[in-house]
Structures are given as structure tokens and as C-alpha cells.
């Protein structure tokens, strides 16, 4: 069950960004091109996640990305990876905090209370921080419950929306250029960015076999892909590309279903909140472990660095949910594509000392797959500058 729960943590970490941002970003391209683009990015990110898993299993006593980078890339490599890791996790924490604050603000307004967004996401962040500090077993159990509930909500939403699918919306020709496709690839890339929790999960499942770790990563990557495809099909089929592409906030996407039943609108709101919460749990767990691994073992200091700093940044970058995911996508290229690639090149050298446990994993594909991974990262990196 630990491995299954870990796969759900991987899935949940990705879903918060993707389920909410993907419809707003991909709608302008139409369903068919969006499907192709998601499949390409899914393959690239999944292979990169497996590379990071390999590097983690081949590092003795790795408890975080900092330890893995130090063992494989040296001191300078460790500092570079730590910098990118912090920037990435901070961007994602800010994005999820803003999304949750927006949803909670609308919820309180519906109940007759005008609670500001900063107060909403501050209370939520500090409360969830107490759970993260309690340990991975608590995160695992809570995430399982939330994830299963989220899937139930998704099934209810999909079942309702599928009865109102307009085929014309799915087949309508979208007005876009290749420039636009490249431009928004970073946001889609971020929607599969669950690999930030892999060092924590490999350490959590240190008794697992290489095959089990591989299957954990594959399952944790396939679940978001399937959810994204079904979700995009339902949203585009109900609202159309023109309407969705005008949305900038999560609450606007939910409000678009005001013409449907109030129950459906409420279920979508709950589902959106659960998607953000599961992602917040995974990302905050990764950032907390990184702070303890690289800066201080003191829980109080690690807690402050993990949850206080993102709150400060969220107050400075309000109304920037999709933009923060865009920034995260650029950083992810270094951290989640080129970083694991460089680590694997080092740990595969004959001179590298492997752990004594013998439970090491090597990704198939050889040099051809490594070169393809580098080119995939270059494509995403270039796309960020086309703004």
C-alpha cells in the first residue's frame, strides 16, 4: 500500500496544476492537437522522472535532491540543483496558494463572509504545514483519502458533463499558430511536474525493489494523463474553445457552469479544491524535506522556510496562477530534465561507487534516449522565451 500511496502522491502533485490550468491553456488549440501535445510532453516528463529515480537509487543515504546532487554532481552541482529546486517549489507553492485562496474566498462569499484571499491561503498553508511536519505516513494517509474523494468527484462531474457534450465544440477549427503551441508548452510541461517528490518517495520506499519503484513512477504518471484527457474532453465539449480561452482564474472556470445545476457547480468547486490540496501536499513535502536536507534539521526553521516564504511571495504575485506555472516550467527544464540527465550520466560511469544495498535501478533506452531527453528539454526551454 505504501507504493500505491506513493503513486497517488505523484499523481496528486501533478493534478493540481493540470486539471485547472490545462483547460484554460489548451482550449485555444482544439481537442485533437491538445491530445497530441499532451502525449508528447507526457512521454518526455515520464522518462525524465525515471532518470531521477535511477539517480536516487544509486545514491547512498539519499534523503533529498541535495544529497543526490552532491553525490553525483559534486558541490557546485549540488548548489545549482538546490537553487533551481527552491525556485521551482516556491513558484508552485505560490501558484497553489493563489488558487486555493481564490476558491476559499468564493466559498466564504457564498456563505456571507467577505474573507480576503491572503487570509484564506495563509490559514490554509499554516494548517497544512502542521500535517507535513508530522511525517510522510500522515501525508500518505491523508493524500489517499483526498485523492480517492477527488476521483469520485471527477467521476460525478464527468458523468454529468458527458450528457451535454457538443461534438461541434470538439471538432471546431482552432485559430492558432505553431508559435502559440510552442509558447504554452511550458504550462503543460508543469502539469506533469510531479517528479519533485521522487527523492522523498524513494527514501520513503527504500525497501522497494527497482521494478516496484519503476511501476510506482509509471502509475503516478499515467493517472494524471488519463484524468487530463477525460477532463479536457468534458470541459471543451461543454463550453467550447472560444469561451474557455478567455478565463484567467479558477473561479471563472467554475462560474462558467452556473447555467448547469447548482449541485454540479458545487461539485466542480470541491473537485478543484481537492486537486489543489493534493498538489500542495506533495510540493510542500518536497520543499520541507529539501530544507531539512540542505539547510537545517530543525523542524521549526524548516517549517518557516517551507510555508512562510511562499506566503510572502503569494502576496506579491496575486492573480498570477497560470503565470507562476509558466515560470515553474522554465525552471523545471534544469531541475527535472537536464538535472537528472546529468546525474545519470555520472552515476553510470564505471568509477562511480554504487550503494551496498544492491537495490539500484537503471532506465532502459541507452544513449539515444538520453540525447532525446536533452532535446526535449531544449524544446521546452526555448518555448519559455517565446512570450
From TrEMBL:
Its main location: membrane. InterPro entries: Amino_acid_transport_2 (IPR018227), Trp_tyr_transpt (IPR013059). It comes from Vibrio rumoiensis 1S-45. It is found in: Cell inner membrane. The chain crosses the membrane at residues 26-52, 83-101, 107-133, 145-162, 182-204, 216-236, 267-288, 300-318, 324-345, 366-386. GO terms for molecular function: aromatic amino acid transmembrane transporter activity. One of its GO terms (cellular component) is plasma membrane. One of its GO terms (biological process) is amino acid transmembrane transport. It holds the Pfam family Trp_Tyr_perm. This is Tyrosine transporter.
Amino acid at each position: 500500500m505504501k507504493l500505491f500511496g506513493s503513486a497517488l502522491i505523484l499523481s496528486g502533485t501533478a493534478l493540481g496544476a493540470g486539471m485547472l490550468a490545462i483547460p484554460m491553456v489548451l482550449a485555444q488549440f482544439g481537442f485533437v492537437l491538445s491530445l497530441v501535445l499532451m502525449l508528447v510532453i507526457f512521454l518526455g516528463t515520464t522518462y525524465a522522472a525515471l532518470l531521477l529515480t535511477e539517480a536516487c537509487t544509486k545514491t547512498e543515504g539519499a534523503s533529498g535532491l541535495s544529497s543526490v546532487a552532491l553525490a553525483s554532481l559534486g558541490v557546485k552541482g549540488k548548489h545549482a540543483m538546490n537553487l533551481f529546486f527552491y525556485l521551482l517549489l516556491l513558484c508552485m507553492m505560490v501558484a497553489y496558494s493563489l488558487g486555493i485562496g481564490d476558491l476559499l474566498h468564493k466559498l466564504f462569499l457564498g456563505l456571507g463572509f467577505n474573507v480576503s484571499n491572503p487570509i484564506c491561503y495563509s490559514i490554509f498553508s499554516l494548517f497544512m504545514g502542521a500535517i507535513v511536519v508530522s511525517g510522510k505516513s500522515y501525508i500518505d494517509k491523508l493524500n489517499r483519502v483526498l485523492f480517492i474523494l477527488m476521483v469520485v468527484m471527477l467521476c460525478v462531474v464527468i458523468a454529468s458533463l458527458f450528457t451535454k457534450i457538443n461534438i461541434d465544440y470538439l471538432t471546431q477549427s482552432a485559430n492558432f499558430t505553431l508559435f502559440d503551441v510552442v509558447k504554452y508548452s511550458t504550462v503543460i510541461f508543469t502539469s506533469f511536474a510531479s517528479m519533485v517528490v521522487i527523492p522523498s518517495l524513494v527514501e520513503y520506499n527504500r525497501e522497494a525493489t527497482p521494478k516496484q519503484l519503476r511501476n510506482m513512477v509509471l502509475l503516478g504518471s499515467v493517472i494524471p494523463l488519463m484524468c487530463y484527457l477525460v477532463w479536457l474532453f468534458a470541459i471543451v465539449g461543454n463550453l467550447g474553445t472560444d469561451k474557455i480561452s478567455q478565463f484567467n482564474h479558477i473561479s471563472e472556470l467554475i462560474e462558467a457552469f452556473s447555467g448547469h445545476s447548482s449541485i454540479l457547480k458545487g461539485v466542480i468547486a470541491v473537485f478543484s479544491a481537492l486537486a489543489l490540496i493534493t498538489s500542495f501536499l506533495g510540493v510542500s513535502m518536497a520543499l520541507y524535506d529539501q530544507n531539512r536536507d540542505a539547510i537545517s534539521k530543525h523542524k521549526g526553521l524548516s517549517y518557516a522556510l517551507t510555508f512562510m516564504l511562499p506566503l510572502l511571495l503569494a502576496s506579491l504575485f496575486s492573480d498570477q496562477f497560470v503565470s507562476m506555472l509558466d515560470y515553474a516550467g522554465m525552471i523545471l527544464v534544469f531541475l527535472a530534465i537536464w538535472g537528472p540527465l546529468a546525474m545519470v550520466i555520472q552515476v553510470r560511469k564505471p568509477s562511480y561507487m554504487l550503494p551496498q544495498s544492491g537495490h539500484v535501478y537503471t532506465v532502459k533506452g541507452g544513449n539515444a534516449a538520453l540525447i532525446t531527453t536533452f532535446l526535449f528539454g531544449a524544446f521546452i526551454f526555448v518555448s519559455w522565451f517565446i512570450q
